[in-house]
Design brief:
Low-confidence stretches: none
Distance between the termini: 40 Å
Order of helices and strands: EEEEEHEEE
Strand content: over 45%
Number of strands: 8
Oligomer: single chain
Helix content: under 10%
Radius of gyration: 15 Å
Shape: globular
Largest sheet: 8 strands, antiparallel
Mean pLDDT: 89
Strand order of the largest sheet: 3-4-5-2-1-6-7-8
C-alpha cells in the first residue's frame, strides 16, 4: 500500500487524496469519486465528494473524516473490475475498506467519430 497525502475541505465535505509530485493525464467521475490517473493508468489522485457520507457507508469504526491522520491506497485488479483498497487511520483506529470500479480497457466506439 502506498501512503497518499490528503486535504479535507470541511465546508464542502470534500476529501482530496493525492500522490505528491504526480500529475494527472486524465480523470473519470464515478458517483462521488473523481479518479485521476497518470499516463501509465496509475491512480495519482482522487477527490471524494460528500466524504462524510461516503466514509460512513464504507467504514464502521472511524466516524469523523476530519480526524483521519493517514490514508494508504492500493489498487487490486481482477476479472473486469478493480478495487481501490483504503487503509484509513486516525492514529488510534486503523480500518480497511474497498471500493469497486469497472476496469475499462477499450475506448468507446462513440469517441472515434
Amino acid at each position: 500500500m502506498e501512503k497518499f497525502n490528503f486535504n479535507y475541505d470541511v465546508d464542502n465535505d470534500d476529501l482530496f487524496v493525492y500522490l505528491e509530485g504526480k500529475k494527472s493525464a486524465g480523470a473519470i467521475e464515478l458517483g462521488n469519486f473523481i479518479l485521476d490517473f497518470d499516463e501509465n493508468e496509475r491512480l495519482v489522485a482522487m477527490q471524494i465528494l460528500n466524504a462524510s457520507e461516503v466514509f460512513s457507508k464504507i467504514l464502521s469504526k472511524i466516524k469523523e473524516v476530519s480526524q483521519i491522520k493517514e490514508i494508504k491506497i492500493e489498487i487490486i485488479s481482477f476479472r473486469n473490475m478493480e478495487a481501490i483498497r483504503f487503509n484509513v487511520s486516525d492514529r488510534k483506529i486503523e480500518e480497511n475498506a474497498n471500493i469497486f470500479i469497472p476496469h475499462i480497457k477499450e475506448k468507446s466506439p462513440v469517441l472515434e467519430y
